[in-house]
Hints:
Layout: H1 7-10, H2 20-34, E1 56-63, E2 69-74, E3 81-83, H3 92-107, E4 122-129, E5 136-142, H4 150-160, E6 164-171, E7 183-188, E8 193-197, E9 200-204, H5 214-228, E10 235-239, H6 245-250, E11 256-261, H7 264-276, E12 282-286, H8 289-298, E13 305-308, H9 317-326, E14 330-335, H10 338-350, E15 353-361, E16 371-378
Parallel strand pairs: 5-6, 10-11, 10-13, 11-12, 13-14
Antiparallel strand pairs: 1-2, 1-4, 2-3, 4-5, 6-7, 8-9, 14-16, 15-16
Helix pairs in contact: 3-4, 8-9
Amino acid sequence: MEKCSYAKKCGGCQYQGIAYEEQLKEKEKKVRKLMKDFGKPEPIIGMENPYYYRNKVHAVYHHQRNGEIISGIYQEGTHKVVPVEECQIENQEADRVIQTIRRLAVSFKIKIYNEDSGYGLLRHVLVRTGRKTGEMMVVLVTASPVFPSKNNFVKALRKEHPKITTVIQNINDKNTNMILGERNVVLYGKGYIEDELCGCRFRISPNSFYQVNPIQTEKLYQKAIELAGLTGKERVIDAYCGIGTIGLIAAPHAGEVIGVELNRDAVRDAVGNAKRNGIKNARFYQGDAGKFMVAMAEEGEKADVVFMDPPRSGSDEAFMNSVVTMQPEKIVYISCNPETQVRDLKYLTKKGYRVVRICPADMFPFTVHCECIVSMTKV
Ligand code: SAH
């Protein structure tokens, strides 16, 4: 494929113009270097077709001085909006939805929000797609709750994109870098979409985390569960569980699953997802994973396997210290940032754990980011 024409200004794809095989080699090299004290990584799990993988697509809208409305992304490190019509890594239908909304905003005379003056309504749009189900969620982020002619707007949008199964208005009236605000108003449909991973069905709410590359997510989860070596008896903790995906896919191979997650919407999704899949041996708790683990350890609770999948910043000592107290036989650490993962591995390997396998996976082709699963066992 030709090099993306926005690459320089966007900055989202640092590996634009580099052959995919080369990208994989670069990532392998990086992980090998980072993990040198812990062992030799296995070959990276790559994609067959590394394009159009992102199921979550975001655009910011901007009213230009000449009256034209553009949609796109912020130029790296700035608040200047770069117009983007198509993207090599985003779901193509989602990109078309973003263009349609731009056209409809003109015909419905919807005012685009201006960050400097604070006037205007429409700020961002977020589109999420269920790869297996084809369901589509559109989140219209507005600066105020008042959305004139919203029903006709939604009707016109659905007419052009019948795949849209739910439309949500998210109200973000703060002057912030965060895309989504806290309040959601369902304008059409159920207010969430569903998707399938590894044979399980998942409900995904607008503010819940969901992996952006579903093809690779299936391979990632399969690998993580393989590394856990479950026999059907284990008590498993799924820490930083999001909507419960890893724990629920593992549940049929385990005795019991306990999930913990900070985001309330995601926890609600996880509880619903257990029911949706007829899984009775999984429970989910809302809270900080570190505090939750400290409380479990203090009560003398035990676990056999801990899956941990923290955000980019990695885990904290409270969490890891309690894991060490609970003495699980195995820890499977999934990370989207091997740098913080290495920091955490240093801690765990000093406290009685040994690295067994290191498996990098490419969840984000064309970007520098690399995912890495590390399994550990009690010495
Ligand atoms: N395992 C899930 C989610 C991984 S992303 C999946 O594969 O989909 C990391 C998750 O950690 C997010 O859902 C985020 O909301 C959650 N999180 C962030 N900080 C947390 C904390 N301190 N305690 C618990 N969960 C946290």
